[in-house]
Specification:
The protein is an alpha/beta fold. Helices cover 31% and strands 25% of the residues. The strands form three sheets. Strands 4-3-2-11-12-13 form a six-stranded mixed sheet. Strand 12 (261-271) and strand 13 (277-289) form a beta hairpin. Helix 2 (46-58) packs parallel to helix 4 and helix 3 (78-84) packs across helix 4 (86-97). The protein is globular, with a radius of gyration of 19 Å.
Amino acid sequence: MSAFARLSHVLSTSKVIPFDETSRIIIMSDCHRGNGSWGDNFSNNQNLYFAALYYYYENGYSYIEVGDGDELWENRNITDIINTHSDVFWLMSLFYQDHRLYMLYGNHDIIKKDSKYQTKCHSFYCDSVNSKIPLFPGIKITEGLRLRYKNTANDIFLTHGHQADILNDPLWKLSRFLVRYLWRPLELTGVQDPTSAAKNNEKKNIIEKKLMEWAKQNNQLLICGHTHRPVFPKIGEIPYFNDGSCVHPRCITGIEIRNGTIALVKWSLMTKEDRTLYVGRDLLEGPVRLTDYFDEMNKSKKK
């Protein structure tokens, strides 16, 4: 199956979630939460992530994690990851309890597509109460999601984006083997993994070109992760967005949908005039009304 066929299959089988101007949604991906070891790329930004996510929880946002939330190529056991970042998982469980959490899988946590594996996310052991407590009981982790605007034909399609990458979709088991037993040990010595789209600009360009071409051919607004490179198109350009990642050096990025608009944001450590530090939010692109993108796309359908 080609990359385009894989993307189209995910689109056709994805759950549809309605939204409108009253909806508040934050979209993030590529957290790569690890087990706290030297190779845990999430650890450097975990405080930024927690502060940002708590802001979104307090302000009534739904959280959509678009794949690679957990690093399950380098780590075999998600329980170790949950125990290491228990504060983050506790906060995510609050979203889930409020029916405001949606989780997609990417290539680095593709094992989550196994329903038996998903049961490992249903609860976790809490030291403070010396027993298991609910985490995401009954959660369904999927490959894609469609946000439908006001029950119209206008959809936003969310998926990780690894479907455009042959090494990280049909050949993911080979790539996981290479990462786990070859590239991870070499990475600790400074050698970069050539299979990673996040660390190879040439590969990023190839994957983004495929994703953009698919979005253009299908006249579909598409939001992905995978490449770790934020993308926010202008009106009239191909409607391919990328939320970036949560493992950028010194910052995390995400896409907000609020009041019928879409925006790209960055959270980072900032300094006040008195030199005290705080976690702050910067607007990188937008907000732009989603109806402007939909109107432009509907014009294309009529041509």
